[in-house]
């Protein structure tokens, strides 16, 4: 396999941060610094300029990064070819997912895939959609699964794999719980609990605008950064929220919360993100097909 020092250098050069490289490689920062120092000593030249807490590449560092990229890409292609020839999948599968996907959609998929392929070790990274797509683009991840359509681009391939319905969620005693469906106009008549950022909020604002409702008029009573906090507010009957149906299955099964569909329905896409075809591993292809099949099944 490629020289570990070269892999560490490439991560640091791509991120222009030893700290971020350490996080991506699951190493300590001193270990990253040591590997890069070893490589600099091997080549007899400095590869990074370090000043005021920032790092940048020297001209020699730029050259080494160019070659490192080609070497690592060739090795990835070799692994891909060999995996395609093998009848048994094995090794680490680096998956990225957004929090809702990771917590509420992926666990049964990962469990079933692991049963089918016991020699595969999934490694899951959780972050927002843009970060996951960037990590796929940088080939830090083999595959990403996110809500939304993805940005795409020359180095990232985007495939729609499933749909995720967003619904009105509230306590059984909340006024909206008695409705069969809820219209955008109904949402203006009751206090709302929302996340302070994220794809659901942007999607809801777009949904209201399309329905002729000014998103600024939504009576936002709570802005919370954790889904567990939102659920706690809802269970006490203080507000409603727009959430993924998948995210409240446990609470609805216990009768703590109810889910009421919107009219018209509010659906968001779930998307697979791959590196460009040249760098898509055989294992990632197999997992992507497997995940798309499971996630598209009604539950």
Structure report:
Keywords: DNA-binding, Transcription, Transcription regulation. InterPro entries: LysR_HTH_N, LysR_subst-bd, WH-like_DNA-bd_sf, WH_DNA-bd_sf. This is Transcriptional regulator, LysR family. Strand 3, helix 5 and strand 4 form a beta-alpha-beta unit. The chain folds into three domains: 81 residues, Winged helix-like DNA-binding domain superfamily/Winged helix DNA-binding domain (Arc Repressor Mutant, subunit A), CATH 1.10.10; 102 residues, 3-Layer(aba) Sandwich (D-Maltodextrin-Binding Protein, domain 2), CATH 3.40.190.10; 102 residues, D-Maltodextrin-Binding Protein, domain 2, CATH 3.40.190.290. 44% of the residues lie in helices and 23% in strands. The strands form three sheets. Strands 3, 4, 5, 6, 9, 10 and 11 form a seven-stranded mixed beta sheet that branches. It has eleven helices and eleven strands. It is elongated and about 70 Å long. The protein is of the alpha/beta class and 299 residues long. Helix 1 crosses helix 2 and helix 2 crosses helix 3.
